[in-house]
Amino acid sequence: MDIFGGISDFFNVFLITPLINLFVLLTTLTGSAGVAVILLTIIIRFVTLPLTLKQMRMTRMMAAMQPRQQEINKRYKDPKRRQQEMMKLYRESGMSPVGCFSSFLLQIPILIALYRTFIIAVGEAPESLISLSNRLYDWDYLRSGLPLPADFLWLHLGRPDPFVLPLLVAISTFVLQKVSTLPTTDERQRAQASMMNFMMPLIFGWITLTLPSGLGLYYVLSNIIGIVLQYAYVGGGPVNYRALIGLSQEAVLPKAMEARERQLNHIRGMGNSEVDDDEALDESQSRQKARAGASTSSNGQSQSASAARRRRRRYGRGKR
Description:
Layout: H1 2-30, H2 33-47, H3 49-75, H4 79-93, H5 102-121, H6 126-135, H7 140-144, E1 151-152, E2 155-156, H8 164-180, H9 187-208, H10 213-233, H11 241-244, H12 254-319
Antiparallel strand pairs: 1-2
């Protein structure tokens, strides 16, 4: 119980309470809770930008490493040696599998904290205003804006939206996944990616039906920022709309394929040098075995000659 209490205290002190105060401050400054959600989304995405860029780089690198990983799986049958070669490949390429999920893992506690933020700040429960007052920092300006306006466009940010917002969440999640993933030649991986591209948007859209609209609005805006970052990261260029709606197996962002090809050539170069090193090692070991065999043969012949001389000497003594 102490462990769970410590986790709860950590969430309250370092995530939920600061986000509540920031949201109240932005709402008081702008006079609109919806505009405050937009600004809050931009601030959070800016703070987590280094991890987001790292995740995008690692994800692209992981996609480029797939051919090399397949070569290692085919070449080394011993699981221990295969694991060693995989770790060596990760080290040489500066790749960390955990880096592919760093930004996503950080989003989980942020989403939990934002859920509590909207429940307390714009919730309709009678005790929400009391709980909100108890969580505000000792600054009169923060309390001057209470109670906060909860309406934005057609939304009440403390209530779930029954249709439009879940649909926007599903669509934005689908587009973000399509621009983030690259096509693969492996049929099994392609089938898995296709299933995830359809299942994840549906799951997130369904979950949004039960969440405060403020959290759904944050998620849509965060996805839009993610799409823009993905487009800027690969260097812009044209967009393959046929691939976006599933009519083509090509990449949605063609420039992403060019970036992957450059990374793949770099990894192939590392693989070729590794193959050369292995071949040199095998050749050296073969030479050592040949020398050992020649030495053994020479020793055997020397021993046979010595035995023959001893037999001749014994024969000569016996004859005399």
